[in-house]
Amino acid sequence: RTWIRGEGFASFAAYPMMLEDRLVGCMALFSREPLAETVLQELASVANGIALSIQRKQAEDALDASESRYQSVVSSIKEVVFQITESGQWSFLNPAWTKITGFAIEETLGTMFLEYFSSDTRELVNAQVQKLLAGAVDHGDLEAKLATQLGDFRWVELSLSLTCESADGAMSVS
């Protein structure tokens, strides 16, 4: 109180910052002049805006933590986890790709998926991908020969499914 009088404040207003029914803070305003009703209404509006910003930041932090956990899990899986676009280009690969094939992820992304399969199994893989994209099946398991950077091939088991990865409805195969 002594500090308030010493500073010459004549008015004080406080407004709670609420998210639904939870208090996340309090906004206070000291003034050397009496506060008009419009100022109090604006204080409420600003406090609500700050509360929404706090909520957005908390949601962003939670999403970042979730993505970090997801990335940690996917990176530690010893099987290749991948996605290809509707047009057949690699759009996601986990580190197991490099361990199994020797190809660098960065150099593989954006290249054509089918180019990494032997000519004698490529059509089988393509047929399964096309069935998924056409909606004829929702899942496909098959074996195929996958190229390695050394120029040989490894037999792999593929487990394919269709995913919708964006708000515009773009499809991919995982």
Give the gist of this structure.
The chain is of the alpha+beta class and 174 residues long. 41% of the residues lie in helices and 29% in strands. Strands 4-3-7-6-5 form a five-stranded antiparallel sheet. Strands 1-2 form a two-stranded antiparallel ribbon.
Folded structure, characterized:
With 174 residues, the chain is of the alpha+beta class. Helices cover 41% and strands 29% of the residues. The strands form two sheets. A five-stranded antiparallel β-sheet has the order 4-3-7-6-5. Strands 1-2 form a two-stranded antiparallel sheet.
Sheet with the most strands: spatial strand order: 4-3-7-6-5
Report the radius of gyration as a whole number of Å: 29 Å
Terminal-residue CA separation: 65 Å
Segments where pLDDT lies below 50 for 5+ residues?
A: none
What is the beta-strand fraction? 25-35%
Helix content, binned percent: 40-55%
In terms of structural class, how would the helical and strand content be classed? Answer: alpha+beta
How would you characterize the largest beta sheet?
Answer: 5 strands, antiparallel
Quickly list its features.
174 residues, alpha+beta, 5-stranded antiparallel β-sheet, two-stranded antiparallel sheet, 5 helices, 41% helix, 29% strand
